Amino acid sequence: MNNKNKKYLLQSALILSIVSLFIFFATNAQINMSNRGLQFGFGFLNREASFDIQFTLIEYSRSSTYLRAYLVGLLNTILVAFFGIIFATILGVIVGIARLSKNYLINNLASAYVEFFRNLPLLLQLFFWYYAALRVLPLPQDAGEFFFSSYLTIKALYLPALRWENFYVFLTLFIISIFLIIVTKFYTKKIQEKDGTQFPIFLISVAILLILPSLSLIFGFSSFSIEKPELLKLSETTYTFEGGLEIPPEFIALLFALSLYTATFIAECVRAGIEAIGKGQKEAAASLGLNPNLVLKLIVMPQALRVIIPPTTNQYLNLTKNSSLASAIAYPDLALVFAGTALMQTGKAIEIVSMVMFTYLLLSILTSVLMNWYNKKQQITEK
Amino acid sequence: MRKIFFIKPNISNLNICLPVGSFLILLSFLDIFLNTFYNLNPSFFIIGPVNKVLPLLLGMIGFYLIRIEYSGKKYLDIFNKKINLNNFNALCTLIISFSIIKIMPIFLSWFIIDANFVGDNKDACTGSGACWVYIKVWFERFIYGMYPASEIWRINISFILIIVFGLFGLFSNEKIKRYLILYYAVVYPILAFIIIYFLVSGGVFNLEWVQTNAWGGLSLTFIVAFFALIFCFPIGLFLALGRRSKLIAVRYVSIGFIEFWRGVPLITVLFMSAVIFPLFLPSGVYIDTLVRAIFAIALFEAAYIAEVIRGGLQALPKGQYEAARSLGMGYWKSNYLIILPQALKIVIPGIANTFLALVKDTPLIFVVGLLEIVGMTNLAKTNPKWLGLAMEGYIFAGLIFFLICYVMSKYSQSLEKKLSSER
């Protein structure tokens, strides 16, 4: 037998064995499910879910469908991942830079933070924040105002809420102003490339972003009022806050754990990225007469970002996937709402778990596609 | 700041600046110190918001005064270089040291001074600090889970046996050395499995049978981590080779497998192993929850190991592959003798990091109802007799995990340094 035939044989054997494994599993599943009187199908998605979800971004009630419950869970996952990524990035960049500080104390404090938080299991940190740290918070009636009539209590974090009227006008103007900023950036860059004139792009952008949306407020097309949380007496000893924005402790604990944990990894990425830039680059920039701020902005950061972005993307993905730990503390995310409660009620194990898994897979793929695109833009265009 | 002060500290006025600066810094620390430990406010005569920031202000001026370049005093120069480089640096130094002085007593009193160490029930915990009695009473449960107390020696002996068998490699001479890979890759896992299966699980040799859901605590963490580690490495190795294979089917199957596992959270994989996998088996066949969970973790981490090893394979110069081929080596021989030894050496830190991640992921087995040490502390805090002691339990579990992971990560860092200096 020659080499080529051997290769074909090997590959077909592999594919055959995988296909037969799948068939084996499928037939077994069919037999097992019919034994238990279960049927495969996604029809249950349109049935009434008839369970409550504590924390929802979109309207949801017991009479909503399973599909709606799925959406609620998905949005909650995205919400916590979004804020987690923002906080982790801010903290990670600060700590990463702090680890490079020449100050002995700052440097060591940052190292201690990184070593400590990255060497503890995320689940343990989550438990710690939720069951131990947030439990020492005061009851609603004892809580003091700490920031613009916000109250941090054991029940929830209460923030003043903005109640909008004709919000869409404001939103449209906001989107238009972002569009305008992109256009101006594009044009000023062209002009700068042509004859070297520089514009204060940052100031212009801020001005556009501030002025244009506020026009709608000034001319009264849209308006908002601030709703403050008020202490309400329910009975002799129980109090609660009414109105405003109520952020449940599950969300806070999850956000804390996720961002503190992921920030350690991002800090390491940032540190490695900045360290990867040769000293010669900084010296060359300084000898061209750039001041330290400009050296960081024009020379170090653009190069460091190329090193930082790919591993940081991975960390963002990890954070999103790790947000599924929410089910351990009853934050109604996708894993808990769907792979937990809904699965328990319907018994549609295969459909539900595969739906959840593919949702996460899709989120991962989307994020990595987006970041790969950004990464490609940042890469050196070799001539 | 230079414009505000009339004096510019330099070597000529060193004799004035240094004592005055040191005195001011001393004052600021004294203020904070008295404030924290004796509840005194030495600066009571200064009212208003200035009082609050007075130590900061004094410290800043002091630090400014002693910031003298090339002072000729060795320790002053080192001091300035380390923590007093510029105004911002000095401010950070002050804030950090003040916070440490403020926070330390709170921590110390909770952990040690006001904590309770003696006793055997919750009533012994009268202090306002931690209740370490809880850890003492529950210690056995945290380590061995719900394993029957009279049978715990079985876990101990099997762990000792596994460690002894694992140390074989250290005492081998040249003759046996060539078989070491075979031993660690095939014989050792089987041996370990047999030990765990017969000794810990029991059911034979007059040993009481202990179901896996009674296992728990730290020993379960070790069992899960150990077997998952042993299985995930070879799977990851073959996946990495498969991903770089020239055979299209092999390559795409590997890519699909790796990307699938890397795209989903471990918790859903464990869900799958718990609720879906039994459906895939013929009726009558039952695989234990623990075994399923270990395989789920192993497959999951194998995908990550595969990516790490692929990095090592890609980092090798093409010449190595070509040289191996030109010597007439086939695919397996060239990989075994030339490529993998070099590639694996490059990625040892990466592999260690993945192993570390695996150890940190073991608590997730709580979703299939297995309680290792984190799950156990979580369960113990719901015991009606020991309510309200969640903090102590988590700190205990955290300390153990931190020790394990810190040692592992330090070891991998030292390996990294050792290997990078060799190249």
Task: Explain what this protein looks like in three dimensions.
The complex is a heterodimer of chains A (383) and B (423). Chain A has a three-stranded antiparallel sheet with strand order 1-2-7. Chain A has a two-stranded antiparallel sheet with strand order 3-4. In chain A, strands 5-6 form a two-stranded antiparallel sheet. With 383 residues, chain A is mainly alpha-helical. Helix content of chain A is 65%, strand content 7%. Chain A is globular. Chain B has 423 residues and is mostly helical. Chain B has two domains: 11-113, no CATH class; 132-147 and 210-422, MetI-like (MetI-like fold), CATH 1.10.3720. Chain B is built from 17 helices and one strand. Chain B has helices spanning 14-37, 49-66, 74-83, 87-113, 132-144, 152-166, 174-177, 180-201, 217-243, 248-263, 266-280, 289-315, 318-326, 331-346, 348-361, 373-380, 390-422; one strand at 371-372. Classes of the chains: A mainly alpha (383), B mainly alpha (423).
Specify the helix fraction band of chain B.
over 70%
Query: Biggest β-sheet of chain A: count, sense, barrel?
Result: 3 strands, antiparallel
Supply the CATH superfamily name of the largest domain in chain B.
Answer: MetI-like
CATH class of the domain at 32-135 and 249-383 in chain A: Mainly Alpha
**How would you describe the shape of chain A?**
globular
Low-confidence stretches of chain A: none
CATH class of the largest domain in chain B: Mainly Alpha
CATH architecture of the largest domain in chain B: Orthogonal Bundle
Give the end-to-end Cα distance of chain A, rounded to a whole number of Å. Answer: 48 Å
Q: At the third CATH level, what is the topology name of the largest domain in chain B?
A: MetI-like fold
Query: Considering DSSP H and I runs of 4 or more, what fraction of the residues of chain A is helical?
Result: 55-70%
| Backbone structural class of chain B | mainly alpha
Strand content of chain A: 5-15%
* Structural domains of chain B: how many: 2
Structural class of chain A: mainly alpha
State the low-pLDDT regions of chain B, or none: none
Largest sheet, spatial ordering of strands of chain A? 1-2-7
Q: In DSSP terms, counting alpha (H) and pi (I) runs of 4 or more, how many helices of chain A?
A: 11
Which H/E pattern describes the elements of chain A? HHHHEEEHHEEEEHHHHH
SSE arrangement of chain B, N to C: HHHHHHHHHHHHHHHEHH
